[in-house]
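Suppose a colleague, Dr. K., hands you the sequence of a protein chain of 208 amino acids and asks what its three-dimensional shape might be. Before reaching for any lab equipment, you can write down a predicted structure in token form. Begin with the sequence itself:
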Amino acid sequence: MPNDKQQLHKESIKYLTTAPLRESYPKFICAISDVAYEFLTTDEVGLIEQLYFKMKNIALRNKILYGLIRCRNLELKDFFQKAYKKERYLDMRLLAIHGLVQYAPEEEIEKVTDHFLKILIKRPETTPYNYYEYEFLRSAFGFPLLIKKYGYSCFEKVYQQVEKQYQDMPEAFKGHLTFDEDGKQVSLRTPMKIKQMIDRFYESRNLR
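The predicted structure, expressed as tokens, is then:
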């Protein structure tokens, strides 16, 4: 007899199979949230993949990436390769790497991280103070976890560049948050304190 989680999962899949793609619709968001990835069948994962590539909502795509990373019993190499190319934010691309590394050999992963590194190096020009991305990449769920699990030199190379660019940022953008080994965000300062520090930074620049 299915437990409550399995029942919710079945109902969610049934709804998502027929429901229109309404990413801001509460029932649709709940259905995505109630998918239990440990119960996904091959047919069901195909549905989830289709939804992922149609979605514009980054938060919902993020949920799906986190879920599919844990589906080691399914062959998802092709999905994660395409997901890496689809995403533009480095934290989302890193989630795709977390999935891809479970299926691809080190030589393939090295090509992906070379591409990742090129984008990373350009970040200070485009989004110089994007501390959220840096904190994710250097967190317990970021490149340190991949280095610990796989020991690939390409991961170490990217991590060193992340650290360099992070240290080059003004202090006002450091140490606001991090992520634990499960990828959950951990706040280290209150939103008010963060705003104060960042506001002071910009005020000091305007006074010069």
